[in-house]
Write a structure and sequence with these properties.
Three copies of one chain form a homotrimer. The first copy, chain A, is of the alpha/beta class. Chain A has three domains: 85 residues, 3-Layer(aba) Sandwich (Udp-n-acetylmuramoylalanyl-d-glutamate--2,6- Diaminopimelate Ligase, Chain: A, domain 1), CATH 3.40.1390; 203 residues, 3 Solenoid (UDP N-Acetylglucosamine Acyltransferase, domain 1), CATH 2.160.10.10; 33 residues. Chain A contains four helices and 38 strands. In chain A, β20 and β21 form a beta hairpin. Chain A is flat and about 80 Å long. β37 of chain B pairs antiparallel with β38 of chain C.
Chain lengths: 344, 344, 344
């Protein structure tokens, strides 16, 4: 499946400057550690610079500062990591879309599937739904009524999209993701719970990627919104009426409660929790495993989380966590006595 | 899909008192902020009372104390939030069940599907399973052998129910949920693990709702039980042999270890963890992101979790968490010296 | 479905010593608390020893030290818990494989399904994939191109395996698991994100078990690896390029970031987080809900996590967590004054 390319062919397509022998055929991309003579490696993190001397790679992608740090054939790019990403894509072009509806797919007569779209076996497309040109609907995907899938989108197998949800162009959704299930809304009444019908939908912008088994709930009255270019990892929960800003990335196992607004260009680590009804401004980074309990209005990095320790040490320390207030009072009392004495 | 209703029609169906113009047609429900003249809004939280003066809504649902706080047409209800829930349901009645088995469903000859039940395309229903009247089995659901689904239950697309599990009447299960997979039970033997067959099942009471991609494992010997009226959000793990009490609600991303008993009318936040083999009594609230490490025998609210801080501040503080015991000793020593001195 | 067995028949098959009446028929396994006269119970944890006097069980499995602690018919085994596991399996033998491809399965002409394998309704098997003898592919499983499933493996319904992934012999995968979705790899470029094609795969060793809705991402360049005998619970995220060592067990809701190496024979609790690019040595135990922020090089048990408290108490204590550094400075200052004074 992988192509063969020379350095010259790569820079013709991706730009950058090729230095040294540019005509030798390369068969793929690998790390500096594992690359062989037929492969191209990359140096994106300066702490691995010393590997340039020992790598067996046939070529390397480097930044301008490392232009002369390597003797081997190389490509110089302002952004070697992004260049690496695009080089991998050259060697591994995506499989072409095979337009058509599989005979075992179940597409409603009232659905509108573009002639250039691909719908695989056992997929279900409900009435009023539309699938754009170049989109792929994988096996076993279930699209309800009135779902819209943009041009060039890819739904991997086993994705559910509930009624009325909208996915932009080039969206990628991985297997098992569920888009548009009911938000978790209930009213208490006489000791039991009355379900609040969730009549908003989910609106997903262009170029969003959604990981495996991630769930994005529909809104109660208004929509839940994922803006363009946002990237969500696996097993993330986005509750009803959240707005996730453009180009924000969220790592796996994070849970976002209802009606949270996350700004643009944020980076949210894995296993993070956000309580409901708060706002996070643009350009915020949240460390993994942090609980955010109120709105953040200043860009920056935010963290909680107790450092881990050997268990015996933790037992000795943790007991004081329950008594911090007492400890602080004791310190204040002693320091007060101290101050009085020093004032003598 | 949404109906048109007047205040008079709403109170005829749901009770409460209509005040002011009761004959104008309304087309839906919206928030005080977003409602237009043809929509009805609601005031359930007193902190939004001032919005009554500025809303463009055509009508509003209020509590008895706000009967005269609004000039616009209104419904007075003892529980405006529950009234709102029921009003949304009036405007958005659930789609009617379309009884019948889709020709592309795969229903075993030994299964018993009520004539009033709906089984959608590509659903699989195993031998000995029974589907009650008015139940819907969504596309791509897989029900094993001897599964029982109660009257009026809704399984959204792509739900798995393993052999022998029982779902009560009016249960709702969202897409991707897995009910009855094997509990995580193993015995160590000579450095490897011997699987303990999980021969209990899962028993789910009436009116339970289970969120998308939530997993509820079958019991090892006895059943895992979810009692009536419990509501579980998305991406929750309920391990083998748990009992979740009636009308308890659990928010997303929470994990409940094996053989835990949670009482009735509890409220468990998101991202919570409960260690195995403990009991939580009735009427307990657990804050989001809290780890519960032992049984709780008194109703109340319980919390753990480190407050988040700017990362630089966290670095300065977190180092002391590893030295709390040392710090406490220093305080005791100083306070002791102090006490001795004061005793002088 | 369950068999009837005598103590004599059990020890004939599983070893151990039968003591007392060995010919009475038993119908199943139960706990000491719930077993009736026709059932066999087990005592694996010495703290339940007193139940031997009160159990209604017809027989019991005990360790050598409890050989004479019970009067009822018994089996003495060096490892009563593992013996219990195997006894349950005797009473509940797995359903036999029914070789053949269901007429509603969609198996590519270029796939290689062993004549002794079972492929259920609506399963999809892509070109170049191979299914070993005695393997079962449940309903609605989707196997991409070039997937390999080993002999005797069981894929429960609704499992996705992306292109090129390999599953060893006797692997068990529960419903909703997703193996081989793209790792979460992106390069930032001019404020947006460039996807890094993930061209590694996932390689899963023999006798691995993977829980419901767990996700294991494919590697960026090299493979993600789960070694033989590892056991993963539900809703776990294993990111790209991780290596999980042989016979390691991981409880539910745990998230493992990219390029983490976990050793062999580790035990990782539920809700744990591991940051990226670290290594955990063999024989490490990590308590539930712990965040591991750096490599661990010594076997042992590691913990973090704040103990839970009644909420009011937590409010009093948590405020000091933001001021620990200040508190520690106050203690040092006071102790310093104190030392000076004592030096007087």
């Amino acid at each position: 499946m992988a192509a063969t390319l020379t350095l010259r062919q790569i820079v013709e397509r991706l730009g950058g400057e090729a230095v040294g022998e540019v005509g030798a055929p390369l068969t793929g991309v690998a790390t500096l550690d594992s690359a062989g003579p037929g492969e191209i490696a990359f140096l994106a993190n300066p702490k691995y610079r010393s590997k340039l001397a020992t790598t067996r790679a046939g070529a390397v992608i480097v930044g301008p500062g490392d232009r002369d740090a390597a003797a081997l054939p190389r490509i110089v790019s302002d952004n070697p990591y992004a260049y690496y990403a695009r080089t991998v894509a050259l060697f591994h072009p995506p499989e072409p879309v095979r337009p058509g509806i599989h005979p075992f797919a179940q597409v409603d007569a009232q659905a509108n599937v573009d002639a250039g779209a691909q719908v695989d076996a056992f997929a279900v497309v409900g009435p009023g739904s539309s699938i754009g040109p170049g989109a792929r609907i994988g096996s076993h995907c279930v699209l309800g009524r009135g779902v819209s899938v943009g041009a060039g989108a890819t739904l991997h197998p086993r994705v559910t999209v509930y009624d009325g949800c909208t996915l932009g162009a080039r969206v990628i959704v991985h297997s098992g993701a569920v888009i548009g299930a009911d938000g978790f809304g209930m009213a208490r009444d006489a000791g039991a719970w009355v379900k609040i019908p969730q009549v908003g939908a989910v609106s997903i912008g262009d170029d969003v990627e959604i990981g495996a088994n991630t769930t994005i709930d529909r809104g109660a009255l208004d929509d839940t919104v994922i803006e363009e270019g946002a990237k969500l990892d696996n097993l993330i929960q986005v509750a009803h009426n959240c707005v996730i800003g453009a180009h924000t990335v969220i790592a796996g196992c994070t849970g976002i409660s209802g009606s949270v607004t996350v700004g643009r260009h944020c980076m949210i680590g894995g296993g993070v929790g956000l309580v409901g009804h708060i706002s996070i401004c643009d350009h915020v980074t949240i460390s993994g495993f942090t609980l955010i309990t109120k709105s953040i209005t200043e860009p920056g990095t935010y963290t909680s989380g107790l450092p881990f320790m050997p268990h015996a040490e933790w037992l000795r320390n943790a007991v004081h966590l329950r008594r911090l207030d007492e400890l602080a009072r004791a310190v204040r009392a002693t320091a007060g006595d101290e101050r009085e004495r020093n004032d003598d």
